[in-house]
Amino acid sequence: MKHVKPLDHLILILGVLFLLLPIWIAFASSTHRPETLLGDGLQLWFGDYFWETYSAVLFDNSGFTEQVNALLMLKNSLVLGLGFSVGKIIISTLAAYAIVYFRFPAGSVFFWIIFSSLLLPLEVRIIPSYKVVSDLGMLNSYTGLILPLIASATATFFFRQFYKSVPEEILEAARIDGAGPFRFFVDILLPLSKTMIAAIFIIMFVVGWNQYLWPILMTTDESYFTVVMGIKQILNDLEGNRIPQYNKALALSILALLPPVLVVVVFQRWFVKGLVESEK
How far apart are CA 84 and CA 100, in angstroms? Predict the structure, then answer.
């Protein structure tokens, strides 16, 4: 029987408070007027402008063209996050499947080339990537936002490790039943790796949702701005007395937090199981 240790609970409670306190302050402060935040600083309790602030952020058009609101930016971030995560999963599962189950010359060399690309962050290859996307005429488009980012060495590595843990007997049984490579991949390997797919989907969705550098380089059309770009953009909008709209920036930050949290909560069980299975 496990004994309850008060110190463990105290550490967990302190950890939760440490993580949630900034979010609480941001949420409470977003319900105040920007003059209050400018004069008195961030607030610990709610003000009287919740509906006024959040309805303005969600539905009022702003920006240089006066045609952008939070709903449009949330939609753009959702497209980027889903395209980013689904594209990486498709490319990575196929690459890992080829590396593990097909014997071809220099297969190990190709894997280590993919693996070594983990050492190259986006910032290193961002200018060549921009040049390629620009030459292909994909600036200011969803394709240009998503396509250059969907190759993932990290996801390929995790899927490779998972496929190597699949017993050889399953492959032999599939061969005896007459399953070809495509049927083995679709009917056997993909269902077995659904927890790993869920784990990779969560990680990549959050990474794609929080992308800032690539979208800000790729898009000059405000209709493709993401919600992370909007947080910075909204601070440039000044009211008549030239006060930055801190309350709206904080409200947009809270709204930007909700979809990733929802994805993590919905897929939490598969996420943990997928990470544990990858340790086989």
Answer: 24
**Would you call 109 exposed, middle or buried from its count of C-beta atoms within 10 A (0-12, 13-18, 19+)?**
exposed
The whole-number pLDDT of residue 7 equals 85
Q: What is the pLDDT of residues 73-127, one digit of tens each?
A: 999 999 999 999 999 999 999 989 988 888 877 777 887 887 777 777 777 888 8
**With the C-alpha atoms ordered 233, 239, 245, 247, is the resulting torsion angle positive or negative?**
negative
- The first and second tokens of residue 68, run together, are 């952008």
- Show the 3-state SS of the chain: CCCCCHHHHHHHHHHHHHHHHHHHHHHHHCCCCHHHHHHHCCCCCCCCCHHHHHHHHHHCCECCCCCECHHHHHHHHHHHHHHHHHHHHHHHHHHHHHHHHCCCCCHHHHHHHHHHHHHCCHHHHHHHHHHHHHHCCCCCCHHHHHHHHCCCHHHHHHHHHHHHCCCHHHHHHHHHCCCCHHHHHHHHHHHHCHHHHHHHHHHHHHHHHCCCHHHHHHCCCHHHCCHHHHHHHHHCCECCCCCECHHHHHHHHHHHHHHHHHHHHHCHHHHHHHHHHCCC
**CA 157/CA 255 separation, integer angstroms:** 33
